[in-house]
Amino acid sequence: MHTFEFVRPADTVKAVAAAGQAKTAQQGADIRFLAGGTTLIDLMKLNVETPSQLLDINRLPLDKIEATADGGLKIGATARNSDLAHHPTVQRDYAVLSQAILAGASVQLRNMATTAGNLLQRTRCVYFRDTAMPCNKREPGSGCPAITGANRTLAILGTSEHCIATNPSDMCVAMAALEATIHIVGPKGTRAVPIADFHLLPGNTPQRETVLEPGDLITHVTLPPPVAGSKQLYLKLRDRASYEFALASAAVVVTVAGGKITRARVAMGGVGTKPWRSTEAEAALVGQAANTANYRKAAEVALRDAKPQSQNKYKIELAKRCLTHAFTTAVTG
Amino acid sequence: MSTTPEVPMSPIGKDTPRVDGPLKVTGVARYTSDYNFPGQLYAVPVEATIANGRLTKLDTAAAEKMPGVRAIFHRENIGKIFRSTLGPGFAGITDERRPPFEDDVIRYYGQYIALAVADTFEAAKAAADAVRASYQKEKPNVDTELKADDEPQVVATTFAQANRLQSKRGDAEGAFATAPVKLDQTYVTPTTTHNPIELHATTAIWDGGNLTIYDSTQGVVNFRGVLAQMFGLPKENVRIISRFLGSGFGGKLFPWTHCSLSAAAARQLNKPVKLVISRKMMFQTVGHRPRTQQRMRLGATPDGKLVSLQHDYVNHQGMLDGYHEDCGEATAFHYSVPNLRVAFGRAKRNVGSPTSMRGPGAVPGLYATESAMNEFAAQLKIDPVKFRIINEPKIDESLGLPFSSRHLLECFEVGGEKFGWSKRTPEVGSMKRDGLTLGWGMASCAWIAARFDVEANLQLRDDGTARVACATQDIGTGTYTILAQLASQKTGVPLNRVEVALGDTTLPDGPISGGSMVTASLIPAVFSAADSAIASLLSVATSAPGSPFNNRTPDQLGFENGRVFLKTEGPTKGVPFGDLLQRANLRLVTGVGKSESSFANPTPKFSTHSFGCHFVEVTWQPEIARLRVSRVVTVIDAGRILNPLAGRNQIEGAVVMGIGMGLFEHTTYDPQNGAPINSSLADYVMAVHADAPKIDVHFLDYPDKEINELGARGIGEIGLAGMAAAITDAVYHATGVRVREIPVKIEDLLT
After folding, report:
1. Binning pLDDT at 50, 70 and 90, where does residue B297 land?
2. What's this model's pTM, rounded to 2 decimal places?
3. In chain A, what residues touch B691 (CB-CB under 8 Å)?
4. Which of B151, B499, B717, B747 is catalytic?
5. For chain A, what are the domain ranges?
6. Does the ipTM surpass 0.95?
7. For A231-332, CATH number?
8. Does residue A296 sit at the B interface (CB-CB below 8 Å)?
């Protein structure tokens, strides 16, 4: 770990001004916001992140969870994952989000981890986390040993020849299915970004993981009003029963009327380089009879472009079963 | 002082909570890294980032200039560190004999190439990270396909078998060739890594020519023998202390290279030096269970009588040290078969030296033999329990000796009954419950029962307390409690008034905490020490001023439940021993006890082992490829159980570890760089609480008086043996997939 300066900005404006001095956007930047620290501090101990300055935002008033005027929900950037998962409104109206958060990490980690921190959670690719290894995400141009090495847990969707790192978040998958919006304040003002556009594919710049610019601070996330009559489910598959990142997961929000699917939202975790919304699978479901055969067809569509690596071909079938079963369980209980 | 009434009791065989439990749950118990000393410095090793090649340049300039840094040690400035040799018994064992920095050759990834020492851990870590190394790099060999290296028939190993043809009777090949029914399959176990919660830690302190080391070791006496040699000291100048361990699983049996590095740095700087290794280093420099590849060839008659059994296995080893994973340990005696051959080979790889891991040899070995037995039973269309009953031996056919105490058939009977085995339908996928497919599997297990050399002493004190002392360790299994129970049993002093001293080489030489042999080894020595203390006490009783026994002779006196009495009057009229000591103005009387290793007997009359079996249920949901172990019944025949509470805890822990072995655990070496690539607790998947099913443990509790007077064998390791084979058989029963390379992965079952 390198020495760093610890600063506690008095308000959001000062926080943004201080962070605006950073040379790059948040992840990997020389000036970093510190929220729960469950990812960042670990990476600092590993010398993967080496900020010279930490801006502690834990005491800024960004931790509220409250209803919005349009009947949706506003979730503060520093609301703890545990508080969010156990919030009565979330449990009632956005169950998939509560389930996803509780499927991740451990109680202790969830008690510290925050909404914004989870949105910026970094990959668990072993090469990224070891500075003795090449990694295009950590050191652009150094190469990707994962493609020729240990890739059993890595991505099959959205990969590039430079990076196949999986986005590890469970929360983001549920937020993708709920069509959350990320609210940002930065040196140039405020803006709102749909979660589908927030994370970037690795392409030629795997070091760039989100649309955040230097100085940008996530202030909150909003969820649209709950969809009346929708059924929701988060299903996470992994080797052991708890405390492991997803090998494949699915968040589904589905509405059925008269035996037919009238609306569907589908997102997958553990398989993509970003939280993987499949609008193609959604389109394939709408208007179809709510049955296992049609869920499986949609799963085939969702995984149509999957590109497996040497050790993770199994994820294609696993993800299909995960999606199919998530729909079956959500609809029939 | 406690106000608990001193009710005489015999604590042997009763559920006894840990006597050290309150110390642990209140944080009073200090583990190695909890000790701090005035002027103490912190050391962090620098590790090679190649697995094969040569260190050509070490740039320490930047690191040396960093704040708080005292020294960057490497081959040029660490000072002399000698090699050690294997002595008699357990006094010179180490699995990596080469002293750190001895040459510039890199033989495995993570090998220490330098050591940063600083005023704080943080400064030492930053300095270690700032050291730059250059290498002449060769391609590492971490191939997973294991073919035996060309080695002579008799080879050097640490302490296991040296003869590569381990056991032979009859004509195994001929009988296999003509056997009516045959099985020829190869089973693979992966490299697995010890992951006790407590990391390895060493703090070394020099005082002139005396060296004191606090270490998280499972063997203080052996450790002293090795370190004394490495620093050219008489052993009496070296003291090793290991009061509490956050477990070890065999990984802490013998000293590793960080231990001598810490001592060498402390010598060079004349300050105490603390070195706690990282979790990543746990995967690199302090041993592992090696990968094994085991070919099993079994021949039988159509009605299931084995006629031939061949077990040929290979384990990987490091480039320098001859580690043998004794997979054939149980093969030669476990079943009745007239023609048998067990042979091993080894394959050198660019990996750190392997070492003992819970049930070394027998655990991977029994995975292969029990898997073969299960697979063969299915092929023969015979129930796997019945198949074992058909081949139950009357004697140990490898030694031609009777078993001291073998009740394996009763284990099957009791376990089968508790599990409901008779309801099993053998067809794949034929059993269902609550929408889940069930798989039922079973396997048997065995583990050696023996004793090490032990010395112990026991004191009776004037305040009515007792103290028992032995330089063994408690690795979390309950040795403090067992020692207190043994002392209490013989002296009548209640458990809470028995002081237990262990984990310190200033105490009488005790055994390593290995081989599940500590309890069995301690009994004769502690009992003999107690007898000797009681004899001294009776002598005192006849001479102490005002003693009611003044005109008696010791042989007229008895001792029971803490009281001395006239044999003619019986124990109800006795005098508490504390009163007699006070009258004599004696603080204490001490008895010394000693017992010999059972390995020292050149002509044993019995074959001594523990036995047992597991019945395992898995649930299978093909729609999401989810497999879970849902129920386990384990029956263990390990002699008399001295503390069933701690005993069940050992078996339950082993069963959970067995779930990890069967379904999760594997260390993968990256062929690109030779690194154990999943070297963290997130990437090395072990069973967690949510994976632990309902576990029903039952002990048969037949005393084995050939081992010691209480009839206790050992229980630390046997619970892991056989578990993986029972799981993979249950997996087959549920899914129809026969996995012969553990762990069973989701991708194996998705086909």
Report:
1. very high
2. 0.97
3. 240-242
4. B717
5. 231-332
6. yes
7. 3.30.390.50
8. no
